[in-house]
Every structure is written in structure tokens, then in C-alpha cells.
Amino acid sequence: MSGIPTSLSLTPAHVAQVHRAIADGGPGPGAVLHSDADYEEWVGRMIRSHPSPGTPIMLFAYGSLIWRPEIEYVGETVGVARGWHRSFCFRMIRFRGTPEQPGLMMALDRGGQCRGVLYELPDDDIEGQFTKLFRREFTYKPPNSMPRWIKVETASGPVSALAFVMNRASPLYAGSLSLEAVAEVLACACGHVGSGAEYLLNTVTHLEARGIRDRNLWRLQALVAECIEHNSRAVHANEVASA
């Protein structure tokens, strides 16, 4: 670990430079949204397909569900999902981006492995919990983040867990991008709920608090900080030149 920085380069001060007040432009022309009946069908389908009936329902969180779960849970542990990795492969034209300046959000994409947090959900209202999750995680048709049962390894053995994985058939799938390309986007993009830089900082901070360090995210946060500082210097130079 020698020579590896132990503190984040990306700070709230960097995030403040990217944030700006933006009105919600809505779904946009041609967008098709999931209906109440669609969500009900998804909930029923995922409950019926649970691979281990009679066992607790587990939710695998790898990004914002860690720092903003918005559901009830009765237990938490760390687990590893093999065959999946965190990737900023979800292009955002709303929420944390705009059509004019799209952002990027993380999703679970195929390949590699991902260390994240497993939440055990209470068994008294699974339908209600799933409805909250699904309405939060996917809005448009086709869904960008697909609910799926995956295997997650824990210290007590493997478990089946609900996860939201990237739908590569979605028109918003950005594919595999370099960390440098992602950093340039996150250093600028902002939508009505906040910026990509804020999303990254929250995720890395809460992963670190649980002893989870994703080396790609750690490198990315440093690159985003560098990009924001570069952009700030460029703006200042232009202001001085035009004064």
C-alpha cells in the first residue's frame, strides 16, 4: 500500500464547483414510462423467481443504494458479486445530466467482480419494498437497470441477492469507457438532483467507511478532482483575458 494516498482527492469543495441549479426537463419527447401495472408485474415476477424460497430476501448494493437505500432492512454485511463490476456505463440525460450535457451513472456490468453491501430485507412487506426499489431504479422502457437475482459470496457462504444490472439493450448504455473519459463527464455534468461528481464522492466515501476500496473508483475520484481544478483554472484564465 506504500505510495497510495489514504485520503480522497475529491472534496465537497470540488463538488460545489460543479453543482448548479437546473430545472427538471421531464422525461423528454418520445419517452415511454413504466405504468403501475408494469411495476406490479415486475414485483410479482421477481418474487416468484427467488432462487431460494423460504430464505431471507437479500439486496446487493454497490452504489447509491449504500448511501441512500430508502428501504427498511434488518441486517447488513459485505459480499462479493463475481461476474459483475461497477461501471459508469449508464448515460444520464436527466437526474444527474441533461440532454445538452449528459452525465454518467454507475451500473453493474458484466465481467470482473464487485465488493458491495448486502441488506437483509424484513419479510413482512416484500411487495412494498420491491415496489419502492423498482420505481427508484428504473423509470423508462426498456429499463436501464434490470432487477436480477445474482450470487453473492459472503463470509458465511454464498447467497442469492437481488441486484440491479445494466441492460445492454438500453439506448442509454454507454459501453466500456476509459476512466479519463468518465472523469471528464463527471467533472461537468449536473442535473436537477445533483452532479456526477457528488454521486461519485458519496459512493466512494460510504464504501471506504465499510472498508471497501474499489481501485477504479479510487483512481477515478482523483481524476475527477484534477479535471474540476483544470476547468476552474481555464475559466479563471478566460475571465482574466476578457477583463
Automatic annotation (TrEMBL):
<dbReference type="InterPro" id="IPR013024">
    <property type="entry name" value="GGCT-like"/>
</dbReference>
<dbReference type="InterPro" id="IPR006840">
    <property type="entry name" value="ChaC"/>
</dbReference>
<dbReference type="InterPro" id="IPR036568">
    <property type="entry name" value="GGCT-like_sf"/>
</dbReference>
<protein>
    <recommendedName>
        <fullName>glutathione-specific gamma-glutamylcyclotransferase</fullName>
        <ecNumber>4.3.2.7</ecNumber>
    </recommendedName>
</protein>
<dbReference type="Pfam" id="PF04752">
    <property type="entry name" value="ChaC"/>
</dbReference>
<keyword id="KW-0456">Lyase</keyword>
